[in-house]
Amino acid sequence: MTSMYEFVFLVPLVPLLGFFILFCSLGNLPKQAVALVGVGSVAIAAMLVLFIGVEFLAQTNPIPVTATFYTWMNVAGFTPGVSFRIDGLSLTMMFVITGVGLLIHIYSALFMLDDADYSRFFSYMNLFVAAMLLLVLADNLLLLFVGWEGVGLCSYLLVGFWHHDAANGAAARKAFVVTRVGDTAMALGLFLLFLHLGTLDIQALMQQAKVTWQVGDATVTIACLLLLGGAVGKSAQLPLQTWLPDAMAGPTPVSALIHAATMVTAGVYLIARTHELFLLSPIALNTVAVIGAATLLMAAFTALTQHDIKRILAYSTISQIGYMFLALGVGAWSSGIFHLMTHAFFKALLFLGAGAVIFSLHHEHDIFKMGGLRKHLPIAFWSFIIGSAALAALPLTSGFYSKDAILLTAFDSAWHGQELWAAGLLGAFLTSIYSFRLVFIVFFGEVKTQPEAPAGWLMAVPLVILCGLALGGGLLTPPLQWVFPASAPVAHAGMVPMLTLGLPIAGLLIAGLLYLWPRADLSWLTSRGLGKSLFQFWFSHWAMDWLYDRLLVTPYKTIAAWNRKDIIDRIYNGIANVTWFLHDFSTQSQTGQLRTYAVIMVVGLVLVGVIALGVIQP
Amino acid sequence: MTMITIMAILFLGGIAAWLSDRWHQDLPRWVSLLSCLLAGVVLTPMLFVQPEQMLLLDGVSSTWLEYVNYQWIPRFGIAFIFAMDGLGLLMVALTIFLGFVAVISSWDEITFRTGFFQFNLMWTLAGVVGVFISLDLFLFFFFWEIMLIPMYLLIAIWGHENKSYASMKFFLFTQASGMLLLVAILALVLANAEETGIYTFNYFMLLGHALDSDLAYLLMWGFFLAFVVKLPGFPFHPWLPDAHTQAPTAASVLLAGILLKTGAYGLIRFTVPLFPEAAVRIADFAMLLGVLGILYGALLAFAQADFKRLVAYSSVSHMGFVLLGIYAWTELSIQGAVMQMVAHGLSTAALFMIAGALQHRLHTRDMTAMGGLWQAMPRMGAITMFFIIASLGMPGLGNFVGEFLVLLGAFQVNKLMTIAATLGLVAGAVYALIAMQRVFQGEPGDLLNAKRQDLPDFGMKELLAMIPLMLGLLWLGVYPQPVFDLVDPVLASLYELTTNQTNWVGSDP
Lengths: 618, 509
Fold this sequence. Notes:
The structure holds two protein chains of two kinds.
Chain A: H1 10-25, H2 31-58, E1 65-71, E2 81-86, H3 88-111, H4 118-137, H5 141-159, H6 166-197, H7 202-212, H8 218-234, H9 243-246, H10 252-261, H11 266-273, H12 275-278, H13 282-305, H14 309-329, H15 333-360, H16 378-391, H17 398-412, H18 417-443, H19 457-472, H20 495-515, H21 523-526, H22 529-539, H23 544-562, H24 567-589, H25 594-616
Helix pairs in contact in A: 1-2, 1-4, 2-3, 2-4, 3-4, 3-10, 3-15, 3-19, 4-5, 5-6, 5-10, 6-8, 8-11, 8-13, 10-15, 13-14, 13-18, 13-22, 14-15, 14-17, 14-18, 15-16, 15-17, 15-19, 16-18, 16-19, 17-18, 17-20, 18-20
Chain B: H1 2-20, H2 27-43, E1 53-57, E2 60-64, E3 66-73, E4 78-84, H3 86-105, H4 114-133, H5 137-146, H6 148-158, H7 163-196, H8 203-206, H9 213-230, H10 239-246, H11 249-274, H12 276-303, H13 307-328, H14 331-362, H15 373-376, H16 378-391, H17 398-411, H18 415-440, H19 446-451, H20 460-478, H21 481-501
Antiparallel strand pairs in B: 1-2, 3-4
């Protein structure tokens, strides 16, 4: 009996093949063929995942499987294999990547149709899907790192996709370099783990770690914090979140796929995948929770002040990933991954909806130049209504189930549970305000820019499907009960669940009061004094870009510019100059004049005589 | 006999290329190309030979693919000892492959004295091959010098605007450090003769003789400096940016691709095994030089406006990893260093070819004048992107494997330095991506607008050189094991040899 598991290597390989076909065609394929390859390869991968998933879940008690294809290298006892692990976690991730990925690819086939670099776009997208699948399938931290860097590369390539604009290039480089800072920490984490445990195979590593280290050991804490460094870089969390808003320079489907649904959740995946390691270090886990709570609040405040539709969504992504980190930090592993999944649905929906709006408004991004679009763009409107409801965690949407579970588990957390819960709750309140602020400004009120007719069915179908998922996705349960230690949510009564339920609704009402017709004038609040400073502080995302610019970028550039000519080289040139000087000096002594020679000789003789006397005399 | 045949092909091919100049000025490059191909054909069977010759390196058995020993000047114990093991084979294969690439890159660029140019190219290759297979120190030094002079001429005659300064600088740096090497070799031989009563330059006989430790320390510096200048390690690098900037493309390809590797090879083959105890004494210092090279090279690369200078400084940074890996002297880190040597050879050769192609089309190397070139030359842009990301250490390509193993190994020896070196990954991304931006992305510069019509994209000839380089890097990144297997017996015996005698810091984690 052949098992579908044998074909698991095809899952990343087919999109990779799609990339190679498109890369080697050098843009000579007709657009239909490009779309066929680009979308088709992801569709095949999605089918394979579906078959594998069916076989996996058909078992009453699914057994995780590791499939090894070859040993990547074998050097001095370091033997990372190219091996994939199929379990509930990787399966959940694969479903999200190929499922949402396929929808976004279909959408892009129309969205990007007028672009001259259609083929280059799909080649990068396919490469991304391949790298992301490799990341979640890898049974080995080094192989995971390959996917990890691979998705970073694709993110760079796609953010800077329209490379003729230098600003896009700058955003792309920022995305790559900032995440690379995190990757460097992660690489160090790998070195440390290998030094102490002698392997990077994840399963063996986890077993070995439990044997080697006690809970609370300093080394395992450092290792976890280094891995966390990688995670905060990729997942745009404090203090490395500054790249994500700028990454919105890429085409909107890219933002949906990479910078909302999949790649940015890689950090969450990493921590979940190595959760047994993190369980050994309470300090690291608490750090994860604090980072999550702080990031979700900071980003939520910033989202309140933005007026670029994609940047609002970007900050909301940062904020929602903050919830996932919070979940991981309080040990609500399954809820964290659940939120990752529902977030992938509703955030992809929101971005694709935003894409539809931007598409019809000729690349207009400013929400204050939009308005009254609900009649002209009904599908986008309903996408936003449903997506924002899920984002705000209004009851019965998918986001409600996942966020509610996170907040309640946080409340029960032994370590500052109530504070973490309160932060999450405040964040949920703000989320509701900024989400519906966006909806009310863009889709209600008077029409400011007349939109073109809505785009064709290729863009509509993915939106409709995602609407369904964003609403009903809460009913899907990811098969995680065999992966993570059970964390049964405690039943609460009274204020806690009421507040958790009620504050998002309050946020919706406040947004309605402020931004629904008639729109309240808030300029008195933001135009002077403390209000103005605070508004600008939030608008600049807590001045973090400014800080990093002063602290790191400018000094590096200054030193580089100052030392452009290489000071070391000048030292050697100094030696050369001294030699030249001595050369000139001795050349000048050769005047060819007998008189000079005679004088020098006499002086020399006298000097020698004096010295000789001085030596002999005493 | 393969080794001698290959050298003969290259030496004679060079002479033939020079002479063929008389009939037609296009002929020399064909002669060179055929010589390289022929040498490659002769070498290929070696890749499938199982090592049989067992020789003793100071009591440690080591395997050799070929070994010949003819007397030359018996009175002083000088002999023609050519021996090839996995490391030598790998280096010779790289040399011939990049020789082939270099000939192609000179195809349209060199328009005068083509015969003499190809002669110098071939003789450089022959000299380098000699360096990689000579195991008599006198013979080794002979080839060490042989490879310099034709390279000097390549820069001095066919170089760019500031060629005489650059070639003289190149010559002085390497010659001065070569002097130290010669003195150290002679002193080693004399010291050995005093001990044993036999004059010999034979590598196998000089290994493992316990010299007075202070003397050994002193002699080690001679070997160390000569090779580190060549590498080039910080702070002996200033000759490299000038030499590269001014050299014709083919010379840059050889210089970065293989001449630098002779320095690393010398450290692995001679400096550490001949003076293991002394090497331990400076291990931390040498690793520090490596780390400084990584960071300083990356910083300087970022600051450059000249594309070739940027690539040259990136070489300083990449070779820093090699130095770090060698002096960490763990099996992981040395394997990583060797992998880095090969991968850097391929990626940097390609980047210099791209620099040459840009200069050929635009008549400038100044990146501030470029920009937006992707629009005019998409194929070239995509290929450059490939090598740029290879150079910044993207997993899946060879450079990553090298750098990762170096760092993984070095971390077992010195955590602090490894942490500093790992920052090089960030700095590497910064300069590599800015180069891509300045040349190929952004708004089209004035230059592009003025010349858009006569900017041909990469053609068949250039792809013929680029595609093998790309496939090579991909292969090293995805399945590097054959290279590790090739070098492993060599490194294992050297490792055993050195760690038997010393308490190398990294020997016992």
